[in-house]
Structure formats: C-alpha cells, structure tokens
Amino acid sequence: MTSKYTGVVDEGNYSYEEEMVNNARGMKLFTCRWLPPKSQPVKALVFICHGYAVECSVTMRGTGVRLAQAGYAVYGVDYEGHGKSEGLQGYVPSFDLLVNDCDAFFAAAVASTPNTDLPRFLLGESMGGAVALLLHRARPSYWSGAVLVAPMCKIADEMKPHPVVVSVLRAMTSIIPTWRIVPTADVIDAAYRVQEKRDEIRANPYCYNAKPRLKTAYELLRISLHVENNILKKVSLPFLIVHGGDDKVTDPSVSDLLYRSAVSQDKKLNLYPAMWHALTSGETVDNINVVFKDIIAWLDQRSGASPAPTTSSSEMEQKSKHDHDQHQQDLNVVAKQ
Which positions carry the signal peptide feature in this UniProt record (predicted)? Predict the structure, then answer.
C-alpha cells in the first residue's frame, strides 16, 4: 500500500497533502498528511485513527494542523465506508479488516519516510481509540506510544441499544446488514458542546449522519466488549488518555479502568471536569487549547524534543483567525462537491 502524495497545500507554517491508495481488497482509501515547514526538523510521526461516522481531512483538520505546527508529521486515513474512501457510507462490515487497513497504510507510510527511526505515535479518538489499541496489540513493540482521546473502550450505558435491540442485531446482521434501522440517541448533540461544530458535522457530506447500519452497530458493540474484556489488561505501550468528565458517549470510568489495568509503566490519565466527548474539536477554544497543550507536551517529552517555541498572544490571534478562515474555505469547497 504505497502512494505519491498530491494536492499539496503549503500554508507556510505547515503543508497539507492527500492521495488515494488501494487496500488489500482493491478498495480506494483516502489518505492525507500534515507536515511541518521544510525548514523545521520533524520530531516524530503521528498517525490519526478517527472516530465513527467522521473523517480526517475536515473533521480532524484542527488536530493535523496543530500537531504539524508543533513539529510533527501527521498521517490520516479514512476507513472503508467513511469520508472520501470507497465503501457504503457508514458501513463497517468487519472491524478486523478496518484495523488491518490502518496497519498496512501506517506501516507503508513509516517505510516511506526519510528517517524510519523517528518515534511513531498513534492518536485515536473515540472509536479510533479502540482502533489504536488493537493496532498496538497487533504489533506490541512497534509503536512508541499512543494518545487516546475519549477512547471507545466501552460504549456508555446511555448510548447502548436496548437489550432487545442487541438480540435483534445479532440475529439480523446476516440478513439485512446494511439497513439503517438501529435506534440510538443523537451522538452529535451528545458529543459536541459547541453548536457551530454540530452544524459543521451535519453539513459535511463526508460525515455519516443517519442511523447506524445493523452490521456496523453490531461490530461497534462487539469490538467494545472485546477491548473491555480482552485488551485493557494487555496494553503495554506508553499512553496518554484525555477524557471529558461529562462525556456521555464513551464512559470516562473505563478510561480510568484502562489506566489502572494496563501493564504500561508510562501511562497518564487527564480527566477534564465538565468537558464533553469531542475534546479536540467540539469544545470552546480555551478548552481545546488546554487539551492540545497537554497532548503536545506529552509527545514532546517522549520524542526527545524541545517544547514548541512560545507564541505571543497577538501571533496566536492571527494564527487562530487564519485557521478559522481556511477552515471555512474548506467547508465551502466541501459543500459545493
């Protein structure tokens, strides 16, 4: 799984590139990367595992930009059935194949870098947290560490389908796997505190906003139970968990269970009181800044890198305005497609 990146955008303090690659099943997957300026040495590689129903290039753009500006090369891939990748939208026929696709692309990306000895980190959000943990267990000594943002180690009780629905799921997935009939609470309203971000997700055609498909819901439930029962106690890599104290989508108590259960010697849990699920994009600007400050400091310490240079408040305001304006341009492009 290799590619030559195209569609280069150079913003001065970072560059953005994207390309399609083929997975082992011949499906085209959308991939992208954010890179620091060429004049700035790369501290480490960061590989994004996005959440369910979202994608990398728009939804995770803020994460890619912030980390690239801090000196990290950031790689993302849209899962099958997600974002700009091929596959029925919102459909996860096999979580195992999804993880295999990520593993193959990430390994190929590492092999294609000028310095393959750079530290390599996973960054998984929500469902992507489960993806990151499974990638780690597939290659226990390959990854230098992981940042887990409100990881899906267990589906919160408030978001679980009723037990009767679960029974129907199990029986019907082989008959009507793609049907969108699973009743759930509105995840967007539960995940994103800021209304502007909710509106963005709902307006983004690359995000899946309908009811979960039968097989997808079953796979999410199956893998969350597998992670909870079989993976948590085997986690051995360095990790940072950041989780909102008022998260109603993924259970903060299970992040605490991961922290206490993992055999990792280097582990940290940051629980942010009153914050919600989407810590890196759906909170207030001040809250997002706090979370990224902690994430970048953790990465810097484990990359043997010096902290990113302090930026004046006026420069921060200019960058914030530039990023907001560029973000709006991206949304306008998406809306026209």
Answer: none
The pTM of the whole model exceeds 0.70 = yes
Compare 173 and 58 and report the one with higher pLDDT: 58
Tell me the pLDDT tens digit for each residue of 224-244.
889 988 999 999 999 999 999
Whether 277 is a known active-site residue: answer: yes
Catalytic residue among 50, 82, 243, 277: 277
Which one is catalytic: 57, 126, 281, 303? 126
Task: Return phi, psi of residue 244, to 5°.
Answer: -80, 135
Joined together, the tokens standing for residue 286 give 């001040």
Would residue 327 show up in a list of annotated catalytic residues for this protein?
Answer: no
Residues in contact with 121: Cβ distance below 8 Å, sequence separation at least 6, in sequence order? 44, 45, 46, 47, 143, 144, 145, 146, 147, 299, 302
Confidence of residue 251 (pLDDT cuts 50, 70, 90): confident
Concerning whether 126 is annotated as a catalytic residue, the answer is yes
Per annotation, catalytic residue among 247, 251, 255, 300: 247
